[in-house]
Amino acid sequence: MSEAPFVPREKILEKQRFFQNVQKHTYLKGRYDAITSVGIPLALAATSLFLIGRGIYNMSHGIGKKE
């Protein structure tokens, strides 16, 4: 008595062939993987650079000091 697999073997082999033939990085092979592995880190880096730059500008001009 063996249990039936969750996904048919043919679908697994088809997906394996697809992922082995795509000539991209393995972390960019899915449909939305480029957004999560490239877009989000770029947005975080840009936001942090903006906030650091604004803080340096405010410190150098004495803006927002508590008396």
From TrEMBL:
Keywords: Membrane, Mitochondrion, Mitochondrion inner membrane, Transmembrane, Transmembrane helix
Matching InterPro entries: COX7a (IPR039297)
Gene Ontology cellular component list: mitochondrial inner membrane
Superkingdom of source: Eukaryota
Main localization (coarse): mitochondrion
Subcellular location: Mitochondrion inner membrane
Transmembrane region(s): 34-57
Protein name, per record: Cytochrome c oxidase subunit VII
UniProt organism field: Carex littledalei
